[in-house]
């Protein structure tokens, strides 16, 4: 798993590339747990190159969800591959998290 970051004044975009499993979820958890991340209004997660997500990977997002909500930081997923989106959908996470088709839609949220 490779995580690339792009930042603007109010938005942080994380580009996930590869497989988000138990070992790589630790790296993502560290990134999302940094105090400075809460200075953003939005955290956009680009999932175009995310090929697989495990329960550990999902757990990272779930564990940070309340912190982001409390800080009024929007977490938005976009460019999600169908097989990854299906995992979110089966677990009902698509109703807890914002998932949109494109980066333009994510920026507009």
TrEMBL record:
A GO MF label: anti-sigma factor antagonist activity
Transmembrane stretches, start-end: none
Superkingdom: Bacteria
InterPro entries reported for this sequence: Anti-sigma_ant, STAS_dom, STAS_dom_sf
PROSITE patterns named among the record's database cross-references: STAS
Domain STAS, chain residue ranges per copy: 1-109
CDD domains: STAS_anti-anti-sigma_factors
Similarity remark: Belongs to the anti-sigma-factor antagonist family.
Protein name: Anti-sigma factor antagonist
High-level lineage: Bacteria, Pseudomonadati, Bacteroidota, Cytophagia, Cytophagales
């Amino acid at each position: 798993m490779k995580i690339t970051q792009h930042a603007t004044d109010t938005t942080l975009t994380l580009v996930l590339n590869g497989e988000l499993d138990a070992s790589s979820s630790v790296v993502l958890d560290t990134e999302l747990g940094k105090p400075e991340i809460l200075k953003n209004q939005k955290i956009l997660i680009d999932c175009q190159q995310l090929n697989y997500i495990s329960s550990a990977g999902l757990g990272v997002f779930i564990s940070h969800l309340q912190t982001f909500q409390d800080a009024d930081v929007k977490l938005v997923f976009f460019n999600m591959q169908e097989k990854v989106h299906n995992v979110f959908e089966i677990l009902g996470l698509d109703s807890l998290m914002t998932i949109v088709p494109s980066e333009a839609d994510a920026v507009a949220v």
